């Protein structure tokens, strides 16, 4: 048996009993957009976006992909079953998961933004720890500053953060 592939090296679905074309190794089963692709030595499951309809939420125009590796990013979203998966992410810093077909938080970006915000709050309160600051002020602000450092230990971090309130 010979398994053939197309010009983009994706499994074509054609099997020949005896042919010089194709490879002897059987391809794995396709899984959604993940299709078998011959890499020169073996089959690998690779996303294939040919024929995928995309919607641009900025221009409000549709386009059909002719590229196998056309994994577009915002403002493009995939149209699944004739329905736009979602015109916009539910909030900034969300990415589209093409496996679950849902918008999900972009955790690394949210973590970076949370740390940057925390660091700005810490820098703005550095003055409270100087030697000439009264001990009562220093103690109250030290508690606040420690709570800022502990935000990464919160259960919902980084998607849900309860920011501490600075002392008055």
User: How many individual β-strands?
Assistant: 10
Radius of gyration: 26 Å
Q: Judging from the principal axes of the Cα atoms, what is the shape?
A: elongated
Within the largest sheet, what's the order of strands?
6-5-7-8
What is the SS-derived class? Answer: alpha+beta
Let me know the average pLDDT.
84
SSE pattern: EEEEEEEEEEHH
Q: Would you summarize the structure shown here?
A:
The protein has 168 residues and is of the alpha+beta class. It has helices spanning 107-124, 135-149, and strands at residues 2-5, 11-16, 34-38, 43-47, 53-56, 61-64, 76-80, 83-84, 94-97, 102-105. The strands form 4 sheets. It has a 4-stranded antiparallel sheet, with no helix packed on it. Strands 1-2 form a two-stranded antiparallel ribbon.
Keywords:
single chain; 168 residues; alpha+beta; 3 domains; four-stranded antiparallel β-sheet; two-stranded antiparallel sheet; 2 helices; 10 strands
Question: Can you describe what's shown?
Answer:
This protein is α+β, with helices and mostly antiparallel strands and 168 residues long. The strands form four sheets. A four-stranded antiparallel β-sheet has the order 6-5-7-8, with no helix packed on it. Strands 1-2 form a two-stranded antiparallel sheet. Strands 3-4 form a two-stranded antiparallel ribbon. The chain is 20% helix and 26% strand. It contains two helices and ten strands. The chain folds into three domains: 2-47, no CATH class; 53-105, no CATH class; 108-153. It is elongated.
Please describe the topology of this protein.
Elements: E1 2-5, E2 11-16, E3 34-38, E4 43-47, E5 53-56, E6 61-64, E7 76-80, E8 83-84, E9 94-97, E10 102-105, H1 107-124, H2 135-149
Antiparallel strand pairs: 1-2, 3-4, 5-6, 5-7, 7-8, 9-10
């Amino acid at each position: 048996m010979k398994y053939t592939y197309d010009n983009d090296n994706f499994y074509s679905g054609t099997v020949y009993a005896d042919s010089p074309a194709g490879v002897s190794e059987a391809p794995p089963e396709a899984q959604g957009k993940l299709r078998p692709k011959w890499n020169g030595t073996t089959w690998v499951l690779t996303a294939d976006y040919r024929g995928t309809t995309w919607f641009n939420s900025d221009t409000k125009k549709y386009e059909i992909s002719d590229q196998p590796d056309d994994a577009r990013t915002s403002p493009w979203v995939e149209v699944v079953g004739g329905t736009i998966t979602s015109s916009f992410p539910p909030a900034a810093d969300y990415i589209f998961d093409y496996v679950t077909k849902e918008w999900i938080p972009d955790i690394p970006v949210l973590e970076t933004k949370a740390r940057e915000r925390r660091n700005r709050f810490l820098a703005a309160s550095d003055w409270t720890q100087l030697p000439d600051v009264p001990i009562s002020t220093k103690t109250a602000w030290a508690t606040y500053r420690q709570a800022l450092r502990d935000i990464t230990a919160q259960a919902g971090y980084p998607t849900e953060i309860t920011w501490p309130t600075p002392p008055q």
